[in-house]
């Protein structure tokens, strides 16, 4: 079993990493401002569910493929970049619609959950990060390395869930204040679209 001091260090590091600006928490922030805290929480649940994939990838050695195979890394990152560009397109499209049209095209909570999963899973850098980060807190003397990886992955998910949910609630309140004005809502959609496009370019040019 992982010793207590290692767990405290890992959880502290995980919370700090979740707080550091990145595609996932920026995604939660912008979508919570646009769609409300509840939507942000379901996106967060999707993002955290996506971390199950990356944890499995590390535990089963699949993440090493993304680190060693340029083709596999590029295929997944371009899928992720294309999806982010699609989200940017939807945001810019929403900014040009009337409020009534926007209401007709509201996503369900399950659709938001799926969006979070897709965004997280299609980022190969998360698998590579987990491959570099999680094993540092394992010790063969504490038992099965695979089991330790699963425990650490679960703790990282809980840390991300806590931080991202907090961001969702705070951003949701801020978004409610902005959305009193229709123009402000359009501006938020354009900002979100710009952020998604920038994240897509960043991911497309990412190196292993």
Number of strands: 0
N-to-C SSE string, H for helix and E for strand: HHHHHHHHHH
Backbone structural class: mainly alpha
Q: What is the terminal separation in angstroms?
A: 32 Å
- Helicity range of the residues? over 70%
Integer average pLDDT: 85
The major pleated sheet works out as: none
Shape: globular
- Rounded to an integer in angstroms, the radius of gyration calculated over CA atoms is 18 Å
**Total helical elements:** 10
Low-confidence stretches: 98-104
Please state roughly what percent of the residues sit in beta strands, choosing from under 5%, 5-15%, 15-25%, 25-35%, 35-45% or over 45%. Answer: under 5%
Number of domains: 1
Question: How does the SSE layout of this entry go?
Answer:
Elements: H1 4-19, H2 23-35, H3 37-60, H4 63-68, H5 70-95, H6 99-104, H7 109-121, H8 124-133, H9 145-178, H10 182-204
Give an overview in words.
With 208 residues, the protein is mainly α. It has one domain. The protein is built from 10 helices and no strands. The chain has helices at 4-19, 23-35, 37-60, 63-68, 70-95, 99-104, 109-121, 124-133, 145-178, 182-204. α2 runs parallel beside α9 (145-178), α2 (23-35) runs antiparallel to α10 and α3 packs across α8 (124-133). It is globular and about 60 Å long. It starts with a helix and ends with a helix.
